[in-house]
Design brief:
single chain; about 160 residues; alpha+beta; globular
């Protein structure tokens, strides 16, 4: 069985009460559009680490992955594309500011979501749902395994 090359993207979803951290793109086809801090996974990088790197590059803050809110998958002309939206908690005292590739970085209230131009409807949906759902939790088994090994799962108990 052979593996398939995959376009792998990630986002950092940071919430604060009824607000989500968004960035306004400064260049490219989505210039002027709003979305989550996001980007691609580099060779040899865990997707979780890529989400934190993108958050650092775009918003100049450090965070901790606490779970996953959403996974988007689709097929493109070059093959499968997967996008993972991680739940991230900012470290104490961190205040987002626009850094590279973005014009603005700020917390936006859900009441303002219909008034901004989004990168995509899927991005708006992820941001909206992050304010109403509990993310899958993350358990890190890396120390026991001796290599990066993360499990993301729903820990809610059904009765």
């Amino acid at each position: 069985m052979s593996s398939v090359r995959c376009d792998l993207g990630v986002a950092a979803v940071v919430t604060d009460k009824r607000r989500v951290l968004l960035v306004k793109e400064s260049a490219g086809r989505y210039s002027g559009h709003w979305g989550l801090p996001k980007g691609y996974v580099d060779e040899g990088e865990l997707p979780r680490d890529a989400a934190l790197r993108e958050l650092r590059e775009e918003c100049a803050v450090e965070g901790l992955v606490t779970g996953i809110y959403a996974i988007r998958e689709n097929l493109t002309d070059i093959g499968p594309a997967v996008f993972i939206a991680y739940s991230v908690k900012l470290l104490a005292g961190e205040v987002p500011t626009a850094a590279s590739e973005v014009d603005e970085a700020k917390f936006v209230s859900i009441d303002q979501f219909d008034d901004i131009q989004w990168v995509s409807e899927a991005m708006k949906s992820i941001a909206t749902n992050a304010l109403t759902q509990t993310p899958f939790s993350t358990t890190d088994y890396s120390q026991q395994r001796g290599y990066p090994y993360l499990l993301h799962q729903n820990n809610e108990v059904r009765v």
